[in-house]
Amino acid sequence: MILIAMGANLDHPVHGAPVNSLAAAVAVLNVLDIQVVSQSSWYKTAPVPISDQPWFVNAVIAVQTEMLAPDLLQALHKIEAQFGRVREAKWEARVLDLDLIAYNGLVTDNRDQGAGGVVPHPHMQDRAFVLAPLNEIAPDWQHPLTGQTAAQMMAGLEAAPAFEIVQI
Asked: Which residue is catalytic, options 52, 99, 126, 127?
């Protein structure tokens, strides 16, 4: 299963509210030969780490593509750039964030995000804003390193930041 976490907490000059930017990004993925096969609800979540930033809108999608993981990651970064994302600081507010969370059980040798793409995402098991939507669409999905399911990882979070489902 190929999983992508999506998030945004800034209004986009064309698409408007973060949820609209995320929906527009899903449409772009479908045009790029990346077929969305499942999508979670939209979740409104506190920024991590907690700060005075606006809350995020997050979702997780499962996709199918013939692209290899590095090519898919590059495509996701290009989409972010098309939407105006500029990477300046870690944990900054953003108009669009697309993270490759998992790619068909692949485990990259590189485990340092500063040195390139890392699959599975090294922090996914600690983040309610990823696990809640993942648990919604694939509760039985298993982390390739820990063997835990999405449901088990979600249940194992000690103090999840606040989140709520955003109805659109």
From this structure: 99
Q: Indicate which CATH number applies to the domain containing 14.
A: 3.30.70.560
Nearest to 17, CA basis, from 61, 54, 62: 54
**Catalytic-residue membership of 94:** yes
The parent domain of residue 60 ranges over: 2-166
Q: For tokens 């979740």, what's the residue?
A: 43
Query: Would you give the distance in Å from CA 113 to the centre of its chain?
Result: 15
**pTM of this prediction?**
0.90
Residue in 33, 71, 97, 140 annotated catalytic: 97
Q: How many domains, in total, are found in the chain?
A: 1
For residue 18, give Cα distances in angstroms to 44, 71, 87, 136, 156.
10, 25, 17, 20, 29
Among 33, 52, 71, 85, the one annotated catalytic: 85
Active site residue 87: no
- Which one of the listed residues 11, 71, 87, 94 is annotated catalytic? 94
Across the chain, mean pLDDT equals 88
Distance from C-alpha of 134 to C-alpha of 124, rounded to nearest angstrom: 10
pLDDT band for position 61 (50/70/90)? very high
